[in-house]
């Protein structure tokens, strides 16, 4: 049976610089303009909102933020969609995984509207056998219930699953659920510094295509175990 390779989307396959730009620059500016606030005050208000909802399902919801801050967040993303970019090696990696017979899943916290926008701009949808938004599942990936519900919807063996994500909190929950092969990303956003490996808790990919040799090594070890 082919192994399943699960990918996060933003910060893993796609450059997180788009999301940073939308949430940290565009939204504060638009919020300040609409509500006639100084930009500094707008940033402070939004920062408090972000912190109070971080790692929850609503944190990823365009609908929730539109209602909460009075700015159409999805429309804002659509306005700047030309800035959506794949991370280096993304297409190459997905292409080679499919050629080698791996089953690829896209497992994202992005809500369905944002997911659709990203997939309409970056042609990667055809590489995936399963595409899941946490909005469909009803829990964010940081919640163990997400993984339990995902397994109910799409059965998979955690022992033979590979999962790549740029968020340590998500990886910790996946580890708690029992997924064995976990990988972090050293530079989710091209506009931010590379995170040092010693500061990260999980095995880390500097380049996405490094995963290919790692998977070959995992397969070799698994075959050695079966032969023994």
TrEMBL record:
Pfam families reported in the protein's UniProt record: HAD_2
Keyword line: Hydrolase
Molecular function via GO: hydrolase activity
Database matches in PANTHER family: GMP_IMP NUCLEOTIDASE YRFG (PTHR43434:SF3), PHOSPHOGLYCOLATE PHOSPHATASE (PTHR43434)
NCBIfam families given in the database record: HAD-SF-IA-v3
Protein name: HAD-IA family hydrolase
Annotated organism of origin: Acinetobacter oleivorans
């Amino acid at each position: 049976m082919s192994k399943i390779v699960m990918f996060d989307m933003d910060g893993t396959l796609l450059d997180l610089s788009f999301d940073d730009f939308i949430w940290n620059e565009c939204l504060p500016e638009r919020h300040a303009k609409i509500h006639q606030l100084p930009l500094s005050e707008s940033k402070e208000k939004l920062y408090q909102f972000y912190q109070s909802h971080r790692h929850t399902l609503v944190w990823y919801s365009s609908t929730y933020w539109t209602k909460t801050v009075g700015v159409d967040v999805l429309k804002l993303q659509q306005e700047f969609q030309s800035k959506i970019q794949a991370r280096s090696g993304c297409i190459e990696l997905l292409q080679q995984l499919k050629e080698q017979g791996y089953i690829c899943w896209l497992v994202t916290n992005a809500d369905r509207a944002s997911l659709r926008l990203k997939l309409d701009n970056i042609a990667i949808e055809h590489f995936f056998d399963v595409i899941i938004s946490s909005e469909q599942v009803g829990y964010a990936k940081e919640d163990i219930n997400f993984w339990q519900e995902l397994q109910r919807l799409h059965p998979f063996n955690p022992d033979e699953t590979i999962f790549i994500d740029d968020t340590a909190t998500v990886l910790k929950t996946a580890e708690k659920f029992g997924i064995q092969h976990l990988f972090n990303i050293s530079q989710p956003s091209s506009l931010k510094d590379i995170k040092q490996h010693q500061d990260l808790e999980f095995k880390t990919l500097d380049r996405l295509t490094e995963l290919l040799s790692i998977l070959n090594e995992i397969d070799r070890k698994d075959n050695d175990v079966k032969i023994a």
